[in-house]
Design goal:
single chain, 7 strands, 240 residues, 5 helices, 7-stranded antiparallel sheet
Length: 240
């Protein structure tokens, strides 16, 4: 009897040991609190990293889009100049298909002279410009849909032609020698980009057809190099 009892007892011990081992195996497969926190931290880090990456991609895409806008505007303006004996739209009277009008110098009117070649008014809107919106048609296009300035002092050899409007301290009230009654804000070696569009950077095009992506230091160098009208570089900004 003692032998039978011992055998049965040993079998119970073996079963208990087996159950205990299975429970331990299950417990070993479960996350500890520390491991769970580590996983959560990794997931949050990857989400943050992805968010930053996608944000930079969006900013870069907006900048490229803006550059393409300026390239197309510059090309069409150059074609306009060729067709009009070397004169820019703002040097030609309104009744001759230009935008020369001392009584009405709103910036958007200068772009209206180029509608034949650029088609969609969205080209005058920078996608990074949160304070402007693109117009669905030229009929409703105005300064609220215009992200770019116009350089009154430009000529075929160079000078600021078009560019982002986000420059500090710019006004449209200084007399310019381009034509009688013209007024514009000045781009000088003291000018600076603000954060409004490309975060203290901007894009500009020149009368020679080139387009530049520059920060404030680069803008100052361009302003010094151009030196139009005694370094004033008068331009009309869409702020009126």
């Amino acid at each position: 009897m003692l032998y039978i009892w011992c055998v049965a007892h040993n079998k119970n011990i073996d079963k208990n040991r087996e159950v205990f081992m299975k429970i331990n195996e299950k417990n070993n497969l479960a996350f500890t609190i520390t491991e769970l926190l580590v996983v959560i931290a990794i997931v949050l880090f990857l989400a943050l990293l992805f968010g930053i990456g996608s944000g930079w991609s969006r900013i870069k895409a907006q900048r490229i889009n803006c550059v393409n806008n300026l390239k197309q505007l510059t090309l069409q303006c150059k074609l306009f100049v060729i067709d009009n004996n070397g004169r820019f739209p703002w040097q030609i009277p309104v009744n001759e298909s230009g935008s020369f009008d001392p009584a009405n110098q709103k910036t958007f009117r200068h772009f209206l002279t180029l509608t034949k070649g650029i088609g969609n008014p969205k080209i005058c809107f920078c996608p990074a410009d949160k304070n402007k919106s693109f117009a669905k048609s030229w009929a409703e296009f105005n300064n609220n849909n215009c992200s770019y300035f116009v350089g009154y002092d430009v000529d075929n050899s160079g000078g600021f032609l078009f560019g982002d409007r986000n420059l500090k301290g710019i006004a449209n009230n200084e007399s310019c020698n381009v034509w009688k009654g013209a007024q514009g804000g000045c781009i000088t070696t003291s000018s600076e980009w603000d954060e409004a569009i490309h975060n203290k950077c901007g894009n500009v095009s020149f009368g020679d057809g080139s387009v530049h992506q520059v920060d404030t230091a680069g803008l100052k160098k361009l302003a010094e190099t151009v030196n139009r009208d005694n370094g004033r570089n008068h331009s009309r900004f869409p702020i009126d």
